[in-house]
Amino acid sequence: MAMQKVLVAGASGHIGRYAALAFKKRGWFVRVLVRDPEKLKRFGPFGEPLLDGVVDEIVTGDAAKPDTLFGIADGIDTVFSSMGLRSSKPGMSYHDIDYLGNANILQEAMLHDVQKFIYVSIFKADEMMEMQIVKAHEDFVQALKDSGIDYSILRPNAYFSDMLQFQKMATSGVIIWPGDGSLRINPIHGEDMGDICVDTAAPGHQEIDIGGPDILTYKELFTLAFTTIDKEPRIIFIPPLDRQRLPFPHKTTERPYRRYARFRHCRQRNRQHRTPLR
User: Fold this and answer.
1) How far is CA 257 from CA 93, 136, 188, 234, in A?
2) C-alpha to C-alpha distance for 183 and 123, rounded to whole angstroms
3) Are 240 and 179 in contact (CB under 8 A)?
């Protein structure tokens, strides 16, 4: 049986690194697409694995520039993409990167008769379509579904690396958060997510909600954040509707609300969501 070949787009990111490593460990030929190959010579900011010298081939290209992508999918069986814009930047938009950039990669995949396209989108996206990042993700999801190529769409609710923000907030001495702390979430480690990415390369359309085995409330997460730095927990929960009446400057409360918007639908998780292939 011929070795299966995968192209990993977004390979310098959190999930891209773990996915590339997981494919390699399963015996795949791994080609990665990055804008800056130098990043792969270093561990990621949350301890993600370095890939230089590990994967089979590194290609340099910018998904927002189609002329840099010619041939990236030549000889490839499966494309995996977790590529996206982490935050808005001058001259770049979520639409440009998360939608158009992935659409450019999809076009190359179709040109070279790739069998499968795996894409990492957003959990409960249908309930957050007013957010630009969510809309861009889901615009591409629809394009992928319309393309006729076999696909898997993965929807993780949160990663352990995301939890570092809570520790940083605890370091400041207080965590201010909308709600009452009862919403629940089950973040997943990148290594476990990488294994799932490989599992979903099997034939057949799939759309999967994914989470880790441990279910925690936000209050429990915040308390753990203080515990890890040996500080007495100081947590202030704010009813979301009272935002305009807060005695704090607008800038003080904006960041917690953005974080809340990102995770607000990761609630009532009463089981571990994993791919049925495992």
Assistant:
1) 21, 21, 22, 18
2) 15
3) yes
Q: Does pTM surpass 0.90?
A: no
The maximal CA–CA distance of the chain, rounded, in angstroms, is: 66
Sign of CA dihedral 264, 259, 120, 190: negative
Phi-psi domain of 24 (left: phi exceeds 0; alpha: psi -120 through 50; beta: other)? alpha
Could you give the CA distance from residue 148 to residue 151 in angstroms, rounded to a whole number? 9
- Please tell me whether residue 208 adopts helix, strand or coil conformation: strand
**What does the alpha-carbon distance between residue 187 and residue 261 come to, in Å, rounded to a whole number?**
16
d(CA 183, CA 212): 16
CA pair distance 118, 262, nearest whole angstrom? 22
In whole angstroms, give the CA distance from residue 82 to residue 274. Answer: 18
The string of pLDDT tens digits covering residues 136-152 is 999 999 999 999 999 99
Residue indicated by tokens 């997510």: 193
CB 77 within 8 A of CB 115: yes
Q: H helices of the chain, where?
A: 14-25, 94, 102-111, 132-147, 164-171, 190-199, 218-228, 250-263
Residue with tokens 């639908």: 265
Confidence label for 248 from pLDDT (cuts 50, 70 and 90) = very low
